[in-house]
Every structure is written in C-alpha cells, then in structure tokens.
Amino acid sequence: MPNGYLYNLFIKLGLTDFAARTAEFVILKPAKILFIVVLAVVASRLAARVTRRSISSLATRAPIEARSERALKRASALASTASGIARVVVWAIAIPLLLSVFNLNLGPFIAGATVIGAALGFGAQSLVKDLLAGLMILSEDQYAVGDRIALDDTGGIVEDVNLLRTRVRADDGKVWFIANGEVRKVANASLGWLRATVDLELPYETDLDAAVAAASSEAGAMAREPEWENAILAPPEAYGARVKVKGVTVRVTAKTRPAVSATVGRALLERVARRIRGGGGGGGEPEGGPGAGGSDEGGPGESGGPEATPAAAGLAAGTAPPAAG
C-alpha cells in the first residue's frame, strides 16, 4: 500500500516508521468514517426534503378542481413513503463505503447478501405484495382515513392505512386489520356523493300518479329548505318503482353528500310518508323504509345509508314494521 501524505509528514517530523503508520491509521481512518457518516446523513436528509417538496409541488400545481383536501393528504402520504425510500438508497450506498475504509473484501459480503436477499424474496413475497398494493391504494386514492368502505364481507370506517395494512372499525365496534395485498375490490361510500333512497309501499287502490306527485313535491320542497340545500346536491326524484305482493312501491331518491346521506334518507322517509298519510297521495297509509346506494339488491353503499328508526317506521306505517326497500 503506498504511503500517504500524513505518513510522509510524520516521517519528516522524525517519527519512526511504526509510529508514522500508527498515527496515520488513528487519524485518517476515523476521519474517513466521520466524513462518510456525515455525508450520508446530510445526503439522506437532503434527498428526503427534495422528494417531499417535489411531490408537494406537483400537488399544488394540479388544477383547482383536482386540488382537494384528499389530494393533499394523499400527496403527503406519498411524499413520506418516497422520502423513506430515498433514505434507504443513500444508506445502502454509504454502508459499503464504510466497510471499504477498513480494507475489507466486499465480495463475500455481496455474495452472502445475494443469497440472503433471494431467500427473503421467496419467503417475503406476501410482504412485497402488501407493499406494492399499499402504494397503489395511496397513489390512486382508493380510500383514506375517515372513509366508509366495504371490503368483501367487512365494512366500516377506515381508521388507518399505510403501505402494509388497513385498519377498519366495523359498525359493531370490531377493529379489522386487513393486509393490503388481500384487497381485491373495495367500495368507497365517501367519495363524491351518495344516493339516499326511500321506498314506500302503497295499497293497490292508491292513485299512483297522485302519490308520485305528492312525494316529488314534498321531496323537492325539502331540498329547497336552507337546512337541506347544502346536503342535497340535486333535485330529488320520485317514481313508481315496482309492483309487489302487498301493493305498489313509490321510490324517492336524492343525490347527497356522503356524510349526511343517512340523515337525508330518514328525513325523506318521515316527510314523504307524512305527506301521503295526510291525504296527498290519494291512497291508504304507506309502508316503507329508507336505504342508500340506489340498488334493489343492496350493496356496500347501504352500510352508510339511513336505517329505519322506530319513530320513522311508526310514522310511515302506523304499527306495521318497515318493509325492506
């Protein structure tokens, strides 16, 4: 190994060969290690900061209609993930440089790391799968904290979501931990809008046209009231939906904000049923109940829809229980 500047300097100062080599080792090696560590720390922090600012800048440059609170939260989550990856890359370069300071042969380390990496790759496929799925969930904004979702037979409010798993609190209070790699399809009832649906079952002798007109008039009047004008996004619709064994069904639907869909549905049930019971429908007393999602078969959206309360059911059908919408 050729002698360095410090060695030659110490020889000129009168130190022996052994003393010059020892002094060079004691001074030079720690200095190199300190330099690499400091450089790695600075580079990792700088890379993380640049990554965060780049992603945040892209989020703020998006069109105004695409710049929402959800988009900013998603950008923050992606920036945090990207900054973590940047730190890992920097230290993956710094560690071999630290080992080379001690003149260690990195060949065996690289070979061993290759074998270990292959073993971990086969054994941790599900982990990699969860990481990639979590990255797609965050980048595509499939759901976020606070959203009401349905995953297969599990549904509830999202309490936490990261790259590995999603934590959901169901309506019965149970907390479900779901690996992101197991998410094949998800229904999100908190994106954009929901449709509150109220079905009222009327006797066959009812004047269906009069009942539909009364329901439409009452729902429209409700939508125009200051209390509901921000909750109901479009004029409600009323129409004859189907014929059942007990009579005919009048359905009232309203496009609402997700957070108030259940409340709007219950209010629609009470007011439309009261209007028809008061003689505005040209028939007997209605039976019915509210729902959400706009589907006869039900679906994930119904978990966030209104449910018939005893007061609403009594108002709509006297003593009879509400029929399934």
Describe this protein with a few key phrases.
8 helices; 325 residues; four-stranded antiparallel sheet; alpha+beta; SH3 type barrels; Helix Hairpins; Alpha-Beta Plaits
Written overview of the protein:
The protein has 325 residues and is of the alpha+beta class. It has three domains: 5-123, Orthogonal Bundle (Helix Hairpins), CATH 1.10.287; 142-188, SH3 type barrels (Roll), CATH 2.30.30.60; 194-317, Alpha-Beta Plaits, CATH 3.30.70. The chain has helices at 5-12, 17-60, 69-101, 106-123, 125-140, 208-224, 261-280, 310-317, and strands spanning 148-151, 154-161, 165-170, 175-179, 187-188, 194-202, 237-243, 248-256, 287-292. The strands form two sheets. The protein has a five-stranded antiparallel β-sheet with strand order 4-3-2-1-5. The protein has a four-stranded antiparallel β-sheet with strand order 7-8-6-9, covered by helices on one side. Helix 7 packs parallel to helix 8.
Helices and strands in order:
Elements: H1 5-12, H2 17-60, H3 69-101, H4 106-123, H5 125-140, E1 148-151, E2 154-161, E3 165-170, E4 175-179, E5 187-188, E6 194-202, H6 208-224, E7 237-243, E8 248-256, H7 261-280, E9 287-292, H8 310-317
Antiparallel strand pairs: 1-2, 1-5, 2-3, 3-4, 6-8, 6-9, 7-8
